[in-house]
Structures are given as C-alpha cells and as structure tokens.
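User: Some background: our group keeps a shared notebook of sequences we're curious about, and every so often someone picks one and asks for a predicted structure to add to the entry. Today it's my turn. The entry only has the sequence so far, pasted here. Could you supply the structure so I can complete it?
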Amino acid sequence: MALEGYGVLAARALTTRREDGTDTPHLQLHLVAEGDAHWRVAVNVESRQAPSELLYLVEDDVRHPLTATLAQLAAGWHALNPGQDGPHLDYVRGNLFDRARMRLLPPALAGPDNDLADLLDHWLGRAIADPAATVFAFGQRWGPDEGVTDDVFGFRPGAGVHDIHFNQGSAPPFDRDNGVRQDGALILRFAERWVAIFLAFQSQSFHTDDVTGQPLRDAAGDPVPEPAGVRILAAMVNPRGPAPEAESVLLLNASPDPVDLAGWRIADRAGQTCPVPAGALAPGETRRVAVTERVTLGNGGGTITLLDAGGLKVSGVAYTAADARREGWTVTF
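Assistant: Of course. Here's the predicted structure to add to the notebook entry:
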C-alpha cells in the first residue's frame, strides 16, 4: 500500500533541532510557508531496522528537468497523486542520481562534520541563512490539526512532513508503505544552484516492481543482485541537421568482465524503448547506440535509461533543456 498524503512542501527554513541519543533520532526542521503557516519536517538519521546507518547522497549542483517544474511551484503544500503528472520523486525510475554514489554515515558522533545530522545541519544552515532560499520537502504529510501544538517547535496548529527518504523496496514490516513515484528527499533552491539530499536505508532494495514498489526477487527468493557495470557515458540529444535527427547514446562497460548486451534496450522519458545492438561489450570498451523506433531524446530535457534483457534498470541519466540547447554537442554524464 502506497503512502497516504504524499506531496511536496515549498517553504522557507527557520531553524533545526537534533535528537541525538533518542530511540528514533531525527533532524527536525522548522519551515514557514504561505500565510505564515508553520511546518515541521522530520528527517530520519538512523534506521530502526539493522544495519542502522543510512545511505546518503548530496548532489550539490543538480542538473535535472525536475528543477524547472519545482521553480514554478508556489509556497505551501502540493499534494502529488502517483497516477498524475507532477514533480514526483522516484529514486529508481527518475534517474535522479547514480545509486553507486550513495555512502554511509552514522547518525551522531562527537566532533564536527562527521555524522549525518552534521551534514544535514550544514546544508540546511545555509538555507536558513539565506532568506531567498527555498526548501522543497518531499514526503508524507500530517496535519494540520487545530487542536495540537507541535511538540518540537511549539507552533500551532501542528503540521508537518515525514518519510523524507526512499519509500520503496522495503522489507517487512515496513513494506506496507512501498510504492512508486513517492520517494522523499530535501531539495534546496539557492540563487546560484540547486542542492538535493537523498536518503535510503541499507535494508531497502533498489530493484523494485514498477507498479507496487515491492522489492524484486529471483527464483530462489533472494533480492535481485546489482546489475552489470555498464554505464551511460554520453548522448547526442540535439544533432545538427533537420528532423528526424540522428540521436545516439554512448555506453561504457566499466566492469572487468565482458557483458552480453543481447536483449538490452534504451528507454526515454516517456518509457518508449529501442534495442541495443546485441553482442559482447568488452571491459573498458564503449558502444554507440543509435536511437531508433519511437524513442525520442527531447530538446526540452529528459531521461535516458538502460535496461537489461530482463527489463531491469542498469544505468540511468538525466539532462536539462540547457544541456540540449547547443546543437551538435554531445552531453556527457
């Protein structure tokens, strides 16, 4: 069953509060939005399911078509129905980042700049210090409840957002919240750039069902292993010349072993696919794949996904309208 009340809050950051040493520590964030409405955002810094340390990734210069949509949002809460268009987050299908770049951090340690709460405080502190900065908090809403005073920051009525993390691929008992296009994160808009903070639990699987968000398993019942080490290296999304343009995608085998590409496909933002030429790709070698059939690499920004013969995501990238603006230039990732 998917999250109820999924959406994104656009607001200004006021202050943070740590909960070191508690049973379920969070980094609590106090935001204010339209009409002086106050919100609390509860960000997990430790898992209740072993192993306890969270995976994190900070993208300190986000280049994704999502930012163009977020820039148009007014301050306040925006409900997002997974079945409708909108700035939904999906760590698996949205090509927001490379999963392999996520790292582990403990929730709290003595000393500066060495734990997850420190990292969150660093970036949120920058947003608090900048009155023009906007925080976009993706997750599940609670409240507002006119009869409740917030038990952390004391404002009334109590309202907030939680589940600010990957919300699919969870094992029992947390699998009840699995779903697609409903992941949480913090995205910060500054005048000069966008910054995103992505969080996940080590117990979660990044191979999930496209409908339910439940973890995929092999014939033995084990989680599907990580895919072969083939990556999307670059793409020609805006070639010179009249339409139809000769768009292409460049693949690299970063692994030490040859990879058989038989049955593999390239998918665009709309989910249309075209075949990758069959045959083994040697270690360290590249292969240029001509974009054919109904696949389109739009000049307004988009995503490119590499799928193996079983339809599992192997690699995924995103590019913006600015990336595609220069005709004849190859976009690198």
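Suggested note for the entry: The chain is about 5% helix and 35% strand. Residues 116-129 form the longest helix (14 residues).
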